[in-house]
Description:
Elements: H1 2-20, E1 29-30, H2 33-36, E2 41-45, E3 48-51, H3 52-70, H4 80-96, H5 103-112, H6 123-134, H7 138-159, H8 166-177, E4 179-187, H9 201-210, E5 220-229, H10 241-250, H11 275-306, H12 312-318, E6 323-325, E7 329-330, H13 342-350, E8 360-361, E9 365-375, H14 382-419, H15 424-430, E10 436-441, E11 446-447, E12 451-452, H16 454-462, E13 472-474, E14 477-487, H17 491-525, E15 528-529
Parallel strand pairs: 1-15
Antiparallel strand pairs: 2-3, 2-15, 4-10, 4-14, 5-6, 5-7, 5-9, 8-9, 11-12, 13-14
Helix pairs in contact: 1-7, 3-4, 3-7, 4-7, 8-17, 9-14, 10-11, 14-15
Amino acid sequence: MIFKNLRKHMKTIMWLIAIFIVPAFVIWNIGSAVSNRRSGYAGEIFNKKVALKDFTIEKQAARNDAWMQYGDNFAQSVDLEEQTWTRLILLIEAKKNNISVSNKELLDYIKSLPLFQYAQMSPQNYAMIISRLFQQSTVDFERGIQHSLLIAKLMQEVTDKISAGDEEIREAYIKDKEQASASYILVNPAELLDAVAADNVEDIKAYYENNKEQFKKPERVSVEYIEIKFEHFKDSAKISDERLQDYYEKNKTQFKIPEAEGAEGRNSAPQYKEFAEVKNGIHDKLLEKEMNNLASETARQIMNNLYTERTFSEVAAEFGLTAKKTAPFSMLEEIPEVGLSFPFLKAAFSLKTGEISEIIKTPTALYILKPIKKFEPYVPEFEEVKDAAKEKYRSVQAESLARNKAEELRSEIISLMEKDNLTFKDAAEKTGRRIKTVTDLTRSGYVNELGFAQEFTNAVFSLKPQEVSSVISTPRGFCIAQLEKITPVDEEKFKTEKEQYREKILVFKKNRFLNVWFSKIKEEANPKIYPQNI
């Protein structure tokens, strides 16, 4: 049973770790290049240095897991460096919890992998497969698998007591499957915006005075930086035909033609795509890698020159580049001429004025920066934000008018329904409003044309058939709805899907727990990365 559970966890380990690292850009600490540069180390976790050798081995293990999970296109789904740091932290936590993996568990798991299920799997064939597919020794490969199993066991242990009761399952099923049909009208504040005066300076200023915190400017920083674009090296990155052919021969398994349906078990030799067919794809891949390598080498040389206390402008010019300075920006803004880059933002706001960052990698370029001026948060004077205050004031007033309009319409519709015996639809149309209908509304909160509107769905499901709701606030405006009918869940279908939903709820609860649990561990680990060295 334990081994079965381990296999189950191993199937989702890459996905779970991916969940953990979603906020990694704002957690991984990228510090000053001068203070953090340490030869032979990749970074620090739990106040201990991580040897570059250990980081590299663990990164290969993360790559192996990603390849087995996603196939050859794993790079589109996985950031290996972030996966590696996450694994290193989890491995230390596994050690703290005295978790171990026996040789038998390791062997059984490896034997269960499809790669090693051939009848004639000799030690020589085993070593050959690992060498060719993973470019590793058997010792390093098995160490990586052992670490993945340790992490899987850790996850299993910390979530083992989480359960899902029958009532909880039923509630989740009803939330997903029960459907309502309803009609509604919408009063959008935008349609009343013109009714709000745009030149009432006194009222706008009064709104500003009563809501100053809404206009508070966050901390901002301006930086000087050098940008090394990968594309800059396209012409100098030469890929010879010999190199293309060599890559094809050494990585031929990437180009294996899938076996035809029903061909499993036959002793036919594997078939591969012809070199000419995949040559361009290999060229693009190697070109991208070469451009990255050339950019990285240039960035390292620039860093070495900056350590001599030369200016950014002087060093950049030596490499045919230009040092740039940004206008002030906040943590929530795109960086001028750079765009939205979390590593760039993290470095800009975590460094002291004048400190030089490590090399910062983005999908299109490498950056080296230093903050040149920091601006504390402040509440601007009215004159500075009067345009924003005017728009906010008008928006708030239009919203108030829309709510009042919706209340008036509801009263009018109810009156028409009672006095003239009209339907909700006819009464609404008589007031000049257009009826909208929804026939597949669930309790999840999403409504076509309204977006995520939990208040709307809650209100509709609380009504009796043909009952008209009170005014409902939604992201798009104010609604008045009438429930037409609720289609209950199919009880027989629920019985057949009950255990499937139990599993769904368990996965959700465990992932929610693991996110909170791991965020605390990351905080304790206080990771510090030396990008210059990895």
